[in-house]
Every structure is written in structure tokens, then in C-alpha cells.
Structures
1.
Amino acid sequence: MDFATFAVQCLNAVQYGLLLFLVASGLTLIFGIMGVINLAHGSFYMIGAYLAFTLAPLFGQNFVLMLVCGTLLAALFGYLLEWAFFSYLYQREHLQQVLMTWALILVFEEARSLLIGNDVHGVKPPDWLSGSIALGSLMTYPVYRLFASAACIVIGLALYLVVNRTRLGMMIRAGASNRDMVRGLGVPITRLYRIVFAGGVALAALAGMIAAPMSSVYPGMGGHVLIICFVVVVIGGIGSISGALIAALLVGFVDTFGKVFFAELSGIGVYVLMAIILVWRPEGLMKRGY
């Protein structure tokens, strides 16, 4: 493998890992703060991809504005969804949470089929992101993938600042540590949960919108993402955003280079990684924290 090919694979691994981090950070927030096992989280990624397919023709070259509008719509949807369904799950057993969120997956898939159909769609990136840059004399790399990585980094930094430098973030961290004490101090825990859930949905949908121009938009696309995101959350440590970032990048490199060097075994690489890390650190790479 020459240097240009190695550089391309490293860029692909980082881009994939950062995209996984966006989805997994929303999942670990919801589980770490609210204690809800949300199997429908991958469906929010799918909804984001279909939002991109629907909104892209309306916004044209204003791709960033489309991402902002789609994220706001997803956050509003998440806020209403928490009020209508998830607010009843906090005191329930995990089995009931799993059953209800599995039912939501079926509802979302059927709604997608009725509204848009079962065809595979593509989302064209805007003209200003459709070029490539040269890597060596023969290799090129799409500008849009660089944009996707940069967008994920910016969003990750914004998430860090919100969680660690704002009053809302202070309440989120306190709620993750001791929700009963936070409730006793007068913090409106119901509204806090609603905001956290809306944020988790928005992160997953935003990841789907960013990923749409790089891959097809197709039925059931949230299923694989959900499984990988649970792997990321378990490896990183349940409830840890920093752990989710480290784990997502590890999974990105293992998956990307596994497909290059061990194509026949690439499907099990991330699960072998998870098994090794859990034997070494059963609580994951990072303890609950941000």
C-alpha cells in the first residue's frame, strides 16, 4: 500500500468514525441521562437521510441551511416524541422499553414506505462540494467527505461546550450522576429529559443528513447503524461522550482497514475489538462522565 492509498483510507476511517460519533453521542446521552434503551435510535438516522432527500431539491445550493432546518425539524420531532411516548418509560423495566422502541421502528418503517416508497434514492451534494482534491499523482479525495469530517468536528466541539460550559450542561451532568438529587433541588427534570431526548434525535438525524450524499438512502438503513452505535457506546463506556468519540474512531479504523486487509473477515472486526476491550475493561474505555 503506497502513501496516497494509506492517506485515503485514514481519511475514510476518520470520516466514518466521526459520523458514528454523532449518532452514538445521541444514543449515550439518552441512555446515560434517561436510562432508556432506545432501539429506535437508528430510525432517527434513517429519518435524517430521508429528510436530506426531501429537502435537498428545495434548498438547492444552500446545503448548510438545509442541514440547520432539518436538524431543527428533527429536534422538534424528538421533543414531541418524548412527550408522547418516552416520558412513560422512565420507571418501566428495560424489557418494556425494548418492546416499545422496537414497535416504533416498525411504525417508522411503515410510515416511510407509505410516504416515500421502497425505492433506493441518492442525494446529490451541492456543486461547491462536488469536486475532489489530488492526493499524489493518481489518487483523489472527494471534497464532500472532507466537509463531512469538518462538520462532525464542529458539531462535536459545540456539544462539548454545551455539556461542559453551560448551565444546561451542568444540569445534564448532574442528572446523569444523581437524578433524584437534581429533582430535589428544583430542576425541572421532565423538561430536561425532553431537551436531552430532542438533542439526541437531532444528532442522529443530522448524521443521517450528512451521510446521505455519500451513500444511498434506502429502507432499513438505520438497522446497521444502530448495531454499530451500540458497539461504540459499549466500548466507550455507557454514558460517556468522550468515550464514545474514542470508541467511534477506533471502530472507524478497524472497520476501514479491516475491509482493505481482511475483506472476508471484516464483518467481525469491530465485534472482536469490543470483546477484547470488554475483557480488559468491562466498564468500557471511559467511566460515566463527559
2.
Amino acid sequence: MNILNALFKTSLGKKVIMAVTGLVLVGFVIGHLVGNLQVFSAPEKINAYAQLLQSMGPALWAVRAFLLLMVALHIWSAVALVIENKAARGKKGYADQKTLRASFASRTMKWSGLIVLAFIIYHILHFTTKQAYGPELFWVDLDGVRVLDVHTLMVLGFQDPLVSLFYIVAIALLSLHMSHGISSMFQSIGLRTRTWAGPLNKVAIAICILYFLGNAAIVGACYFGFVEIRNENFQASAVELCTPNCQVCETRLAANN
């Protein structure tokens, strides 16, 4: 109980929570990018990867719940620390001086964080619950098993210019957010010293640039047609014609069954 009180009621504890949750989330987004880069391989690769995740069943939802908890704790600790810092700051002159010394990434942390949160919500609706498309239209046979064609889902999604633009902006802000967060993460737990603060900042920036370029490559390749839909049963017109009583959908689903 004393440990929990120290974590949730002290500034140091909140910084530890923010650092640990940030580390978990950075690890997740990098792993998520590695999985998504399979879109450049044969469609079977990323479809099999997605099916493997779906086959985890309740365990997958447990992982998702854990990640959402990490997001919630990360946001809570960030907001709590901002409130504490404002209360303790006192003089306006000190605040102005601190703002001048702060990096652009650190000054925009709260705004980039809010936009990234909106991106997470849309991303879940787009690829996890697939609410952005209505009925699940994209299915393919994989070793005799009918699975969701994630490859087609990704390519089609990023062919929409507004969706692609939103993803690029959100990923850029997430990269900016992480460039400051990775370095601050070590500072929060007392592991960043003056000796290696410079190299740590450079490594953080390099990681975030590579992260942005990897995601931008996926979006750009899908949007400009370098990665194409390869599902022979897919009909783009079916997306536009889809309604609750869509005959096209019913015909395709009947054929697949």
C-alpha cells in the first residue's frame, strides 16, 4: 500500500508511472510498425500475422486492455504533473524563462498528446473494430481457412487522401511526442546524466525519424499504388454500393460460404 501511495501521490511516483507506461507504449508502437511493414510482402504474410493475433482470443483482449490501461495512466500522470508544476511554478518570470529553454517538442507535448489520442481512437475504429467500413467485406482463403483480408483493408484505407493525410500528421506528432518522451523517460527515473544526455537525445531523435519514415512509407506506398490490392474476389464498387440490404455483399458472402 505504501508503494501505491508513493506512486500515485508523489511527484516522483507520477514520473515513474509516466516513464514506465511510456516505455511500454514506445515498445508497442515500434512492434506494431514492424508487423505492419509486412504489407510490402505477399498479402498472405500480413493476413497470417493478423490471423495469429486474432487466434489469441481472450488473451488478445487482455493485451489490448493492458495497453489501454497504459495509455490511461500515461495521460493521467502527465496531466497530474502539469497541474503540480503550474501550482509550484509561482513567478511568471520563471515560467517565461523555462519556456524559452524548452524544446519545441516539449512545448507541444500536450497538444501532440491530444491529437495522438484522437488518432488512437480512430485507428481502433479503422483497423480493430473496422467501424470505418461498416460490414466486413474483405475475406480471403488462407490455407483453407477464411480470414479477414487485412492487406486489402490497409491498401483500401490508405487510398483515401483524407485518411492518409490524417495518419501522416498523427504519426508525425506521435514521433515528435516520442522524441521528447524517450529522453525524458530516462530523466524521470534519474538515469540521464549530463555525460550522455546529448547522445541519448540523438538516439531518441533517430528512432523517431525511422519510426515516422516507416509508417509514412506504408501510407505512401498504398496511396500511390506501389502496394496494390491482390484479392481477386474484391470489387471496389462493392464498398460504394454497400447498404444494410446490399445484394452485392449478400452474393459475395453466399459464394464464400
3.
Amino acid sequence: MTSLPREAVGQRYDPALMQRARERSWDALHGIRQRMRPGISEDEARAEAMEVFRELGCERLWHPVLVRIGANTTRAYRQASDPDVRLGENDSYFIDLGLVFDGHEGDVGDTFVIGDAPQQQACAEAARALFHEVADAWRGQGLSGQALYAFAEARAAAMGWRFNQATKGHRVGDFPHAIHKGGDLADLGAPPSRDLWILEIQIAHPTEPFGAFYEDLLSG
């Protein structure tokens, strides 16, 4: 499949099951989205997420559920949230999931807006657009992981958004992918193979306290 040590997989790895894990993870994300409402906290959203996972037959989490609300949407994965933040009437939030289905890892994320928040809506749409632009560059130009993130940062600046350099993308595979050599996509000096890498995009308003996140499998 690939000669790159950082792309090693287990004997049970199956690209079709990777796609199924991806699809089921998106189902879970939208199930959580349906439960988001003004006043909910991040802790409450994570608790309700567990009900969604049970309904979908998720085997386990491979990374903790991340729900970021309001100003917390500017924070990178390893940064702690302000625990007092609750979803406002006109506000934004993002969901980041790492779930296991059929022994394979799904990892998806997206940003949503409730009420009337046009700037936050523009930011969410920009994160999605930037993701697809970078993914298209991967498909069309065969760029390395390093080049993809240099491209993403330049395009974000051109679009008027601040790019979060701490969000770098990563490996996935048959669970647990961590037994193989993975690392960050942004550090990969070769073109990433399909169905093995998550492209993560996180941007923020240059001056206001909100951002947006989008991630999905590099595939197709």
C-alpha cells in the first residue's frame, strides 16, 4: 500500500472500513448538532454525545470528544476551555470527534452557528472552503504534508483569517494507529496517501474572539 514507515497499518486495515468509520462519525457529529441549544455548556454537550454514540453502535472513542463554544473556538486541541462558557442565542460552536467503528478510526469536525451571527457564519464557511481548497491541492498537485500546511496558512491570510499553526493534522487507521509511526501531517515531507491522514483546518477572526474548525479524511 505504501512504503512510508509513518503510514504503516495493521493486518486488518481496510480502506472500505475507513470510509464506513468516516461516514458513521459524520452521522454522530450531526446527531450531536441536533442536541445543541442556547444555554448548553461544553460538559453537557459531551455528556449528551455519549447517548448519540450508543445509538450508532460506536465501539469506543480514540480521542476525547471536543466541543468548543463561543470564545473557546479559538483554542487549539490541547488548550483547556473556559468552563463557564455556554452557548448563546447568536453564537457558534464546533465539534471534533474521534470514534472507532469496525476497528477503524473516524475523525471529523465542523463548525456551526445558531441564531443571527453573520461574522461567525462567514468564519465557519471559510474554514470549510479552505479545507476543500487544500484537499483539492493535495489531489491535483501531489503536495507534501508540509507544503499543504504552508499553502493553507497562505490562503487563510489571503482570505483575511488568522491560521492556527498548532492544528497540524494527523494519522488515522485501524485502531490503534498509534502503534505505528504517525506524527503530524504538517511535518510530513512526502505526499500523504489517501485514507490515512486527517486534514485539520482551524482559523480565527484576526481581532474578534471566535474561530472555526473543520477536519476530515484525505480521500478520493
4.
Amino acid sequence: MKVAVVPARGGSKRIPGKNIRDFCGKPMIAWSIEAARASGCFDEVIVSTDDEKIAEVARQRGATIPFMRPEHLSDDYTGTLPVIRHAVEWFLNAGHAVDRVCCIYATAPFITPADIHEGERRLESSGSSFAFSVTSYAFPIQRALRLADGGRVEMMHPEQFSTRSQDLEEAWHDAGQFYWGTAEAWLEERMIFGRGSVGIPIPRYRVQDVDTLEDWESAEYMFEALRARARNG
């Protein structure tokens, strides 16, 4: 059995109700649920939530809510690994043999069915524990700066001051969209950001964290630009 799990806790403080807030014509979470269903990769698409309003919106969009997430996994400090482990354990305890699980974040409107397919393909072909979306930094991280007392500038890696940008190694970061993993890897809460994982490159113009209102506005501009380009061929 292959399952998509969309974690969607209630009680967002920086963007109240962000998981079901309207984003370009749909509740934010709808984009993740619909991409998962359209991919055809899953026997079931579920939402793990502690919030009845989120649960109702998720059902309307075609996801199932086989359980309500317990309180001890619904605070501000609970990470992704224990939430997905809880979902896997629920299926196993209900007598369902789970093979692969894909965590898809509720605030990932740029995710596509093709991304999900590629993640599953790479997970299988590589024999890895996890396969997840990554994107490149727009500027060499080796030339990063910090602002010290009084706004004084310091290089984090001053030894790289004279190195040409094109000679520095390209760096990547988690795109925050999806994480395919074996059921065993989720149950053991293995380290995702390590040698046991493979990265699925996503172009930067389809990656945006949505943690603040500024992030939200930026994501809307990007999303509408992509829709306009698609309409114009």
C-alpha cells in the first residue's frame, strides 16, 4: 500500500488559518491534495490534522481523515518525522500493509503530479530511505555575510573573498514540498538530510516557503505568473 500523508495542524500563529486560507482560488491545502490524487501514485491520500475545519475542507477536496491527530503531536515543537510515523503506525495497527509513504506539505501549491511521480521513481531506483524535493541557492552560500554589532559586515567564510562565484560548489536546500520514504524509514525516524536520501531538483521559480504574510504574497505572485505563462503557451 502506498499512502500520501498531508500534515496540517491547526493554530497557525503567523498566518492564521493558513492551511485552508484561499490561495489563488482554492484553500491552500487543496493544491497538495489534488496533486497527490492526480498523480495516481497512492492507494489513499490522508490528512493528519487536529482541526475539524481543516478536516472538513480536506474531505471536500477528496482526502480522507482516518484519525484526528493526538494533542501530543499537535504543538508548536512537533516535527514531521513523529507525525508521519504516527500515521504509518495507525495503518499498520489497522491491518494495512504499508510499503511507501509520501509526506506532502499542506503549503506546497507549486507541487505537480510529475514531481511526485519522479520522487517515487527515484526512491525505487536508488534503493534509498527517502527521496525529497530540493532546489539550488540563488547565490553562493560560501560568500554569505552576517551583520554584526552596529550593522558591521562580516563574511562567514572570509577565505572565499577572492574566489570567483563560478568556482564555488553549488549548494542546495530542502524545497519543503514532498518527502517519499519507505515505511521502515519513517517508523525508525531516520535522518532525512543525509546520505540515505536522494534529492529531486525543483526549479527555484516553483519553490517558496510560506511562513509569513510576505512569503504568502510572494507565492501568489509566482503562482499567477506561472498560470499566465501556461495560458499563453
